[in-house]
Amino acid sequence: MTAAMTSETQDRLQLFRAEASTRGIPAEDVERWTATARPCATLTCDGAGDGPVVGRFGGPLLLPAGIPDPAHPFVASIDLAALPADATDLPLPPDGHLLLFAFPETADDYESMGSVVYVPVGTAVAERDRHAWNPYDIDDYEAMFAEFPQGPLRATTEVSLPYHYAAEIPEKPGSGPLPGHPRAEELVEVWENTRDAAPEGSLQIGGYADEEAIYTDPVVDAVSRAVRAAAAGRWEGPVSGDVSDWVLLADWWAGMDVDGWESATVHWVIQRTDLAARRFDRAFASVFWNP
User: Fold this and answer.
1) Is the overall model pTM greater than 0.90, yes or no?
2) CATH of the domain at 23
């Protein structure tokens, strides 16, 4: 974990270590697991939390003139200058706004279900039609979009540990133990039990990806989809198939906010080189949904 931890996040890891110890998990296994910890920003709405306001769900869609209307619904805008220092270990720009877009429904293997737009500070913007993504005015889609949350987002700096405990393998059954972590499944259970005191927000910046039914890393699945999309000519390359070349930019548990999509989770991922170059237009979004 490269960014400094707050006293709250240190306490969270101490609770985790204590719970793991009571379950008889060897200290060396626990320490290898905690060494994977990453900082993240948990964003809450509807008056929850007392952290700084760092953006908002919904609101007017403000875009520069040269950017086409996004193909997916507008989710949220993040003010990077307001995000607490060291809230994540991602090399995010120090200012400007990140705009997140997503359709919280699964698609085929060749399509990104969302996008990200970075608007540098001082850029001239104009308000756009928030419904332009639905040119045929499909009622069911509009009803879904009407459920998207609206309101200011407050940030809490948190610590994130993996929620997955297995790795994909080419042989049957298709997955195996997470390399280097023989007690991973138990450690994930401990983390689930000890993180209950953490602020629960449906939007997260950085950290590890989570979803309703998880045993392998959702980022691995997102990268696999991006590779297939690029191979099919449905998404612009170059695309690395090595998951270590990618990071989780943001997670949105849409099911917490949108009726009828209770298990839907959006994962925005981006290649490290694109993040360093501020090529947020090359972020890829995958969706887990178990209707």
Assistant:
1) yes
2) 2.30.320
167 DSSP 8-state letter: E
Give the tokens for residue 90.
Answer: 């991602």
Residue 37 near residue 13, CB atoms below 8 Å: yes
SS3 letters for 114-152? EEEEEECCCCCCEEECCCCCCCCCCHHHHHHHHCCCCEE
Q: Give per-residue pLDDT as tens, 157-210.
A: 999 999 999 987 766 666 778 889 999 999 999 999 887 655 567 899 999 999
pLDDT, tens digit (0-9, with 9 covering 90-100), for 126-141 = 999 999 999 999 999 9
Strand partners of residue 287: 266
The arithmetic mean of pLDDT across residues 37-55, rounded, is 86
Residue 75 maps to a domain: yes
Q: Residue 284 domain-assigned? A: no
Q: Which two tokens mark 175? A: 């997955």
Find the domain containing 61 and state its range.
7-217
Interacting residues of 45 by C-beta distance below 8 A, sequence separation 6+: 57, 149, 151, 152, 153, 154, 201, 202, 203
